[in-house]
Amino acid sequence: MTKRFNHSPSHLSHLLVCSALTGLLCPLLGSAASTYSFQKINNQTDPTFNQLLGINNTGTIAGYFGVGSMTNPNKGYTVAPPYGQGSYTNENFPLSAQTQVVGINSNGSPTTVGFWVDNAGNNFGFVNQGSTFTSISDPNTPAGTGFNQLLGVNNNNVAVGFYIDANGDSQAYSYNIATATFTAIKLPSTFNPVMTTATGINNAGEISGFYIDGAGNAHGFLDNAGTFSIFDDPAGAGTNTSFLGLNNEGEVVGSYVDQLGITNGFTFNDVTNTWTTVDDPNASSTAAFDVTGTTINGVNDIGQLVGFYSDGNNVDGFLASPVPEPASLGYVAAGLLLSACIYRRKRPHRCQNRASECKEHHAGTARSRFALRR
Hints:
Low-confidence stretches: 1-33, 336-369
Helix content: 10-25%
Radius of gyration: 24 Å
Mean pLDDT: 84
Shape: globular
CATH topology: Neuraminidase
Strand content: 35-45%
Strand order of the largest sheet: 1-24-23-22
C-alpha cells in the first residue's frame, strides 16, 4: 500500500521556496577551500632556528631550538598556549649533548617522545612520562652504531620510530611503552623498500611514515593493521613525498618536494582521498640551514598544524589553526532554514520569524632533522 500525502497549495509553495533557497546556499558556499590562520612561534633563546614537531589536543606543542652544531646544539621544549616566552618548558634528556622532543600525546599527563644525542654523536630514542626519562634502543640496532629515534606516540602509549641497521638503512618499528616490546614494521617487498621510517601513530593503531625505494625516491605510506598503502602528493614530482604525522580524524600531514626543488607542506584526507597544499605565507624558496619552503610535521584532532619553514635567513616554527569555512557556515544556515520550513509545515498556525546566531568551530626533517649536524 502506497501512502500519499496531500499538501495545500500554500504549504507546497512554502516547501518549494525553502528547498530552492537551501539548494542555492549549498553549492554557492560549499565550494570554499580550507584556510588557516598562521602564527610564528619561536623560542627566543635562539630565534634563528626552531622546529615545531608535534601538537596534542590541548594545544601543547613539542619541538626544539638550535641548529644542531657543537656550538649551537638542539635543545628540546614543550610550549603551551598562549605561546609566549613564559609558556616554554625545557625538556632535555639528562646529561645529553642534544635533545629533540618530537611527539606528544593527549593524555591528562602527556607522554612525550623524541631522541637524544650523547657526546660521541650516538642517537637514542627516549620516552618521558611525568618527568621520568627512559632511553630506548631497538635490540636489532647494531652494536656500536647507536642510532634510534622515536617520532610519534598515541594515547595508548605506543610509540613509533626507526633505527639504522648495519647497512646504514633506516628500519621502522613500534614500541609499546607499558610492556617495553618492539615490533618491526615491514613494508611489502613489492614496494621495493630500502629505508623505512615510521613517523606517527593514532589511537586506532594506524601508522604513518615514508620509505625510500631502490631508485632513491621517497613515498608516504599508511599501515592499517598490516595493510599498507603508498601515497604520492599529486602536486609533487612523484619522487619525494613524506607522511610525517596523523590524527584520529583521518587527516595526515607531511611534505613533498616540487619540480623546482622546493619543499611544500600538505594535508591529506584519508577518508575523501584529497590533498591540500599548505604553505606558511612567510615561507621562502631561499634555503636557511638547508631548509627550504614549508614542512608540516604534526596535527591534532582539531586540525591544528605545526611545522617549520625557511624565511630566507632563519628556520621558524609555526602553528596553523583552521579558520571556519564559509561553506561550513552555509550548511549550518541551510540546515536551519530547512528546519524552519519543516517546523512551519507542521505548525502553520503558529509560524513566526525568529532570529538566531550560530557559530561553528571547524574541527576537523623536510621532516624533523632526522640526521643531526655534528
